[in-house]
Design brief:
CATH architecture of the largest domain: 3-Layer(aba) Sandwich
Radius of gyration: 25 Å
Shape: globular
CATH topology of the largest domain: Rossmann fold
CATH superfamily of the largest domain: Class I glutamine amidotransferase (GATase) domain
Structural class: alpha/beta
Number of strands: 18
CATH class of the largest domain: Alpha Beta
Strand content: 15-25%
Length: 519
């Protein structure tokens, strides 16, 4: 579902993991942006151009090489349409390739931070420092410029890190200005949106939320709405918004899969039912989940089993309650893009099982109001809905729960070890005043035994890894080195208080190349 509004900026998706983030950055400026796949018909790609509502196009990045057979492309006529275009990463390379330049494999690939040096402070780089950090993710580079273009910036490994043909208002950057790790990235996008395209501010999140509520109110007149909740920010905000719009015509269902953190089942029920007054049905299915996970070690198999079991339990419970016309779930854009379901040919990073097909087979229509939003945007909606701060600032927790933070088989013994260690991590992070400053901070159980010395005796016990990261949206993340005294206290408590652990290590890998979760 999209707001009924004409887009001023259209993002053309070539499969980047960051495509929706580009549109979101533009929306943060108060300019409505929408995404279309690269293979969209001409009338979709340029809708609004004739009447002047479409102000510009942004070409996203993508996982392929422009010179490969079957690589995604766009109709060349778009470059003659007189509309400003900004190409990002693959988008820059495609522009160069289609307009007569040459793109080749680079001798050095760039993934992660790099320093860009501005050669020509054209409109994109006006009033910016001559050198600053950017975020790269590419293996190819522009070897020869298309006619009419000039280099605006370079890095040590990339001679053309930005280029432009100002006369035709065609621009490109090899780096990703949309991610938080690019300094001045928002400034660069704003230069294009306002200075090049001349867009006007016409959108805000509060208006979007009001449209969502009105839309849900209208749908609820057709039948009752069922909401799956986990206690996380996404599903909690979804349940609160649906309840605000539909009242008692909605019901939230919370399934305890036995893979939750210490005290979580009780906390979730208290938040939803007692603090927010949301109608809630609770089901404890932990024994079923753990039985089906017995002996399973492959992470994707674990995810599938958890997803399949959740579907089985959820559908069985639903049938025992009452008929529902709609099913609402808190799918966010990172869930969509990382499952390979984005508008372009994105590479699959992980799989997600959901209830869509199962509930449709029961005659229910699926509602995903947050499908185009990121978690911090959902948190903004939460504030507008008056949800308590401690719920709003709850760190993300994966749908498969602790099962993907235990490498290998999930057993009651390992769950107990990880729950105890994770509870210590959260308690100490909160005590140190770091909890709300971090995107995620959690423990991972590595079922590899190492030798230690405890009480003048040799021990042979498990390893706990600490994953502490900062991020704005989960699409990219960087590790955080906590104060030494906090790390020492964390380590000492885990080793002393959690039986079966004698070693604690710190994960110091960013995303990319790693993911935030270990499985």
């Amino acid at each position: 579902m999209r707001p009924i509004r004409k887009a001023q900026i259209r993002v053309v998706d070539f499969g980047s993991q960051y495509t929706q983030l580009i549109a979101r950055r533009v929306r943060e400026m108060g300019v409505y942006a929408e995404i279309v796949p690269y293979h969209s018909p001409w009338e979709v790609l340029t809708a609004g151009l004739a009447e002047g509502t479409l102000r510009g196009l942004i070409f996203s990045g993508g996982p392929q090489s422009v010179y490969q057979r079957g690589a995604p492309t766009v109709c060349p006529e778009v470059y003659q349409a007189g509309i400003p275009i900004l190409g990002i990463c693959y988008g820059l390379q495609l522009m160069a390739h289609q307009l007569g330049g040459q793109v080749v494999p680079g001798p050095i690939r760039e993934y992660g931070p790099a320093r860009v040096e501005v050669e020509t402070p054209d409109v994109l780089f006006q009033e910016l420092p001559p050198t600053f950090q950017v975020w790269m993710s590419h293996g190819d580079r522009v070897e020869r410029l298309p006619p009419g273009f000039q280099v605006l910036a370079h890095t040590e490994a990339t001679p053309c890190a930005a280029f432009a043909d100002p006369r035709r208002r065609l621009y490109g950057v090899q780096f990703h200005p949309e991610v938080a790790h690019t300094a001045y990235g928002r400034d660069i996008l704003a230069r294009f949106v306002f200075d090049v395209c001349g867009a006007a501010r016409d959108w805000d999140l509060a208006a979007y939320m009001r449209e969502l509520i009105a839309w849900v109110q209208a749908r609820s007149q057709e039948g009752d709405i069922l909401v799956a909740v986990s206690g996380g920010v996404d599903s909690t905000v979804l349940a609160r918004l649906i309840h605000e719009a539909a009242g008692d015509r909605m019901l939230a269902v919370f399934v305890n899969n036995g893979l939750l953190r210490q005290g979580e089942p009780e906390a979730v029920q208290a938040n939803l039912r007692d603090r927010m007054g949301i109608p809630l049905h609770y089901v404890d299915a932990s024994e079923i989940f753990l039985e089906r996970l017995r002996g399973v070690t492959d992470p994707e198999q674990k995810r599938r089993i958890i997803g399949d079991t959740f579907v089985d339990v959820f559908i069985q419970v639903t049938r025992s309650i009452r008929p529902f016309q709609f099913f609402a779930q808190g799918t966010l854009y990172p869930d969509v893009v990382e499952s390979g379901a984005s508008l372009g040919p994105s590479a699959v990073i992980k799989t997600h099982h959901n209830l869509v097909e199962a509930v449709r087979s029961m005659g229910m229509e699926v509602l995903e109001p947050f499908r185009e939003l990121f978690k911090d945007e959902v948190r903004q909606i939460a504030r507008l809905l008056g949800i308590p701060d401690d719920v709003i600032h709850r760190q993300p927790f994966p749908g498969p729960g602790l099962a993907i933070r235990i490498l290998g088989e999930v057993t009651p013994e390992r769950l107990a070890i990880l729950r105890a260690a994770d509870a210590i991590v959260e308690a100490e992070i909160r005590l140190g005043g770091w909890y709300e400053r971090l995107w995620q901070s959690f423990a991972v159980l590595i079922p590899v035994r190492t030798v230690g010395v405890m009480g003048d005796e040799r021990s042979y016990a498990h390893v706990i890894a600490l994953r502490i990261v900062e991020s704005q949206d989960g699409m990219t993340a960087d590790w955080v080195y906590l104060p030494e005294d906090l790390l020492r206290r964390l380590t000492a408590r885990i080793v002393n208080e959690v039986r079966g652990v004698n070693r604690v290590v710190l994960d110091v890998t960013s995303k990319p190349p790693a993911t935030i979760e270990w499985e």
